[in-house]
Amino acid sequence: MQTYELLVKNRAVLANSADMTLVRTSIGIDQIHVLFDNAEWLDFPITVTFSQGSDSVTQALVVSEVDDSTDWVAESTCLVPYEVIDMTGPIRVTFQGTNASGNHIITAAAAPLSVEESGDVDEGSLPEDVPTIDEWNQAYSNAVTAGNAAASLVSNLEGRVDGMISDALDTVDQHIADTHVPATPSQLGLIKVGDGLSVTEDGTLTANYGGSGLSDDQAMLLTNLQRLAFFCFDTTFNEDGLLQEGAKVKLSALPFTLADGVTY
Predict the structure, then answer these.
(1) How many CA atoms, within 13 angstroms, populate the side-chain half-sphere of residue 253?
(2) What is the 3-state secondary structure of the chain?
(3) How far is 10 from 110, CA to CA, in rounded Å?
(4) Most buried residue, 35, 138, 185, 237, by CB count within 10 Å?
């Protein structure tokens, strides 16, 4: 890449490179680097125009401040348009800034660039569909638009997926709330294993009297009553929990556990 430096001083365009000659229809990319001596160029959108007779090519510049301590306060770099190196002879370069209020600044016309024929290679014939700067800009704009559209699509899809996940979680939570209700005296439901109870891995629930808050004597009495109920009667209980008529007690079968100091 060849860089040609131009100076904009007192609104005149001056060449600052020893050789300002471009080769016509050359293969490669050339660029110009411009230095401005006045900060006023920072306040306007700037365009550069390459012209030869009635033919001209214009493109926008991005102007920034110069960081060093020289007399130049602004600078810009841009590629030399393809249409320029397709011309032959002197190329006038002008810079113009126009703001939204219609105010503008413009340089005096100059001819620091020259496009010469190449004597080393045959020029050949150019394709009829050589893209212009406007076409390149339009293609770039289309690519940016397509990229933004793709990014927007991805964002929308992410939002929809997040919404679907949120809805699914809400549905699960609602199902749990509807089906997992606590048990009440009049309604079936879930219970928790509280104090005095234990549950095995297969779901077997067992009462642990020692952990039920009963005293030792109370737990012993409860055990004796259980034994009395299961082993000491010649009959069974009815559905109301009462002994059936005619129940007999086998005193010799009473498996009482005696407390300390009690004799039988």
Answers:
(1) 11
(2) CEEEEEEEECCEEEECCCCCEEECCCCCCEEEEEEECCHHHHHCCEEEEEEECCEEEEEEECCEECCCCCCCCEEEEEECCHHHHCCCEEEEEEEEEECCCCCEEECECCCCEEEECCCCCCCCCCCCCCCCHHHHHHHHHHHHHHHHHHHHHHHHHHHHHHHHHHHHHHHHHHHHHHHCCECECCECCECCCCCCEEECCCCCEEECHHHCCCCHHHHHHHHHHHHHHHHCECCCECCCCCECCCCCECHHHCCCCCCCCCCC
(3) 13
(4) 35
Give phi and psi for 214, each to the nearest 5.
Answer: -80, 150
Residue 164: phi and psi, rounded to 5, are -65, -40
Give the integer Cα–Cα distance in Å for 6 and 17. 8
Say if residues 108 and 11 touch (Cβ distance below 8 Å). yes
* pTM value surpassing 0.70: no
Q: Nearest-CA neighbor of 4 among 110, 79, 92, 88?
A: 79
Measured CA to CA in angstroms, residue 116 lies from 7, 27, 93, 126, 179 at distances of 22, 14, 16, 17, 88
Burial profile 172-199: b = 16 or more Cβ within 10 angstroms, e = fewer: eeeeeeeeeeeeeeeeeeeeeeeeeeee
Quote the pLDDT of residue 129.
62
Mean pLDDT by 10 residues, the chain (264 residues): 86 85 72 89 88 87 84 89 83 86 82 74 56 72 83 85 88 79 80 80 75 67 69 56 57 54 54
- Which residues contact residue 9 at a Cβ distance below 8 angstroms, ignoring those fewer than 6 apart? 37
Q: Are 133 and 60 in contact (CB under 8 A)?
A: no
Owner of token pair 């006038």: 92
